[in-house]
Amino acid sequence: MRSLRRYRLRTTLMMLGILVGIASLAVLSSLGEATKRETMQRFKNMLGTFDAIIVRPGGGRTRGMPTLVNVPPTLLFDDASAIATELPEIKAVAEVQNAFDIDVKYRERTSSPAIFGVSPNWLALRSEEVADGVFFTADQNASLTRVAVLGLDVRNQMFPGEDVLGKTIRIADVPFDVIGLLKSRGAGPAGASLDNVVLIPIRTASRRLFNRDFLTMLVAQVKNPERSNEATAAVAGLLRRRHRIQPPALDDFSITSPAATMAQVTRAGSTLAKILTGVSIMALLIGGIVITSLTSIAVAERGKEIGVRRSVGAARPDVVLQFLFEAIFASLAGGFAGVVTGWGGLQLVTRTQKLPPIVVWQPFAVAIVLSLGIGVVFGLYPAWRASRVDPIQALHS
Amino acid sequence: MIELEGISKTYTRGEHGIVQALTSVSFHIAPGEFVVVRGASGCGKSTLLNILGCLDLPSAGSYRLDGEDVARYSDKQLARVRNAKIGFIFQSFNLLPRTTALENVELPMVYDQGRVDRRRALGALQRVGLAARASHFATELSGGEQQRVAVARALINSPALILADEPTGNLDLVAGREVMGLLTDLYQEGRTILLVTHDDAVAAYASREILLRDGSVVSDQIRVATLVEGAQ
Fold first, then answer.
1. What is the CATH number of the domain that holds B127?
2. Smallest Cβ distance to B111: which of A318, A391, A392?
3. Cis omega before residue A363 (within 30°)?
4. Distance, in angstroms, between B109 CA and closest chain A CA?
5. Together in a domain, A226 and A90
6. Which residue in B110, B135, B155, B163 has the most chain A C-beta atoms within 10 A of its own C-beta, making it the best mutation to test that interface?
7. Residues A346, A348, A349, A355: what is their CA dihedral angle, to the nearest 10 degrees?
8. A258 lies in a domain?
9. Contacts 24+ apart (CB under 8 A), A31-35
């Protein structure tokens, strides 16, 4: 221990090398892990649930969000009811018709949120609730009632600080009564807010607003998430039958199973995480090489000291342990300092970037263990060399 | 104390082939003797010193030190012997830099199972007249003071044998005389001392002289030692 204090500069340099490596490892792998979790959360925000099969019209050639203007009219209301009634694997089906760039007016105020016509089971299927008011019922949907539920961004933009329930808005000049307010859903996978929406009953949307008979999306909730692959195949089979699609013809719909979505999201997140971790491990290796170099220099310069210690009774293992301990101590100390620095850096990044707080401790624990290992591995060779120093030569140099 | 029988040491030195540094060296040293080993450069006295100090093993022969047969010892066993039975004093002092006098004296105790006894170390420093400089760094001490710290370090584990290699080689006359006075005191207290030197004046302190030439003992004589006032 005293030796470390004696050679302060060298010890500090060794610690610094490890500190940088560990700090970057801790920060980057925490960021990677948090990004992965955040991405999954955003997908969940958007999809509402991971136990739902999503069917879109068009064989996957539609780019971006499907809307009434960019999808083929092949997915029908009857398809949805067929799936709901004929397939035992499916618990419930929700239908969606949506469009953008439609004006919503209240008195003299205007906004252009996304308009989603949805079936009455939409909220329930996504296990969501209204923040205020009520959602529309099956009866209201059947009788084409003109009621609307607003997303939080619409409320904030058009009715800042006001009550919305009972007010009448005009969607494309058609009057709708506001009966409910949605809870905030947060950000979607692209980072945009999911709260800039107005939900209306889909039959009302189809007959009174859009004048379209086809769906932009269909969400089928599976009974048993463990068997979602079978459920997905069943839905695909039914749609092919109904649409009279036979191989080698391509499907006129695209279907995403929960498992596939999950895998895709996880893969994207973990690729990023892996890259970041790889970068930091490289930084750590550099730190390790710093340890080896500095310890080797120490051994070369402290040859006389090694000779003296040997002459007063140090055996070779004593010498190895001495230099190994110095390397491990510097490495561990650098590791702890790196963890603290990394933690501080992480707080700084999340605060300035307004990201949600990151609560992952695994990277930091791994970092400490890693710095211990690095001290051992990279310090061992120079420590062994120290023990091979010939005391006779060292003492008489 | 020391029983050397037929000690030989050979080195292989690349192009020069085999070098015979020592050939069949034999002598006995009784406890309490003050012996000097002399000879010209290259006579093998350094090699002999290294073997006597258990820093090196002979190629042939036997070496009994204080009852132990050390010639075939392992590195670990030799380290223990060096720690417990031998005290070195070097020409270039060989104190640890960036370390205080006291810590230098304590060093052998570190390797004696870590039993560092600060009071015993202070006592040793007092014995050599440097208790007041205990917390000074080695580099802050004069040459003579450093060598005296080295003597204290050599004594700390009560060794059976003190080995001194040109102890006054890097010292001025006054400092040199102080150190030799210390060694004489130790001799008079009954310690066994073996000294290696070129210097006639230094050699004169010993009561027995072994002369080496080309790796062999050519003479081994008792004589009258010059006794000088010690450092205290």
1. 3.40.50.300
2. A318
3. no
4. 9
5. yes
6. B110
7. 100
8. no
9. A31/A276, A31/A346, A31/A349, A31/A358, A32/A269, A32/A272, A32/A273, A32/A274, A32/A275, A32/A276, A32/A277, A33/A273, A33/A358, A33/A360, A33/A362, A33/A363, A34/A355, A34/A356, A34/A358, A34/A360, A35/A269, A35/A272, A35/A273
Chain B hits for A315, Cβ within 8 Å: 75-76, 78-80, 111
Contact present, A149 and A182 (Cβ < 8 Å): yes
Q: Which residue of B has its CA nearest to A311?
A: B82
Residues A158 and A23 placed together within one structural domain of the fold: no
Q: Which of B16, B69, B10 is nearest to B44 (CA)?
A: B10
As a whole number, mean pLDDT of residues A49-66 equals: 75
Q: Tell me the three state secondary structure of residue B137.
A: strand
Of A2, A308, A315, the CB nearest to B75: A315
Contact call for A308 and B46, based on CB within 8 A? no
Note down the domain range covering A362: 2-43+269-396
**Phi, psi angle pair for A233, to nearest 5°:** -60, -40
What tokens appear for A319 in the block? Answer: 């010498």
Angstrom distances, CA of residue B19 to CA of B16, B149, B189, B226: 7, 36, 40, 37
Least confident stretch, A176-185, A253-262, B15-24: A253-262
* Distance to chain A for B223, nearest Cα, Å: 30
Residue A112 in tokens: 């252009």
In a domain, residue B166? The reply is yes
Dihedral of the alpha carbons of B63, B66, B72, B74, in degrees to the nearest 10: -140
Q: What is the pLDDT of residues B155-191, one digit of tens each?
A: 999 999 999 999 999 999 999 999 999 999 999 888 9
Q: Which residues of B touch A302 (CB under 8 A)?
A: none
Examine the domain organization and report whether A304 and A227 are in the same domain. Answer: no
- The pLDDT tens digits of the residues spanning A82-136 come to 988 988 888 888 898 888 888 899 888 888 889 999 999 988 887 778 888 999 8
ipTM value, please give it.
Answer: 0.89
Whether B55 and A310 lie within 8 Å, measured CB to CB: yes
Chain-chain contact of B55 with A311 (C-beta, under 8 angstroms): yes
Number of domains observed in the structure of chain B: 1
pTM of the predicted structure, to 2 decimals: 0.65
Does any domain span residue A51?
no
Question: In this structure, are A283 and A145 located in the same domain?
Answer: no
Residue A216 and residue A79 in contact, taking contact as beta carbons nearer than 8 Å: no
* Chain A (138-197) residues lying within 8 Å, Cβ to Cβ, of chain B: none
For B55, the 3-state DSSP assignment is coil
User: Chain B: residue nearest A305 by CA?
Assistant: B96
Asked if residue A72 and residue A116 are part of one domain, the reply reads yes
Same domain, residue pair A84 and A199: yes
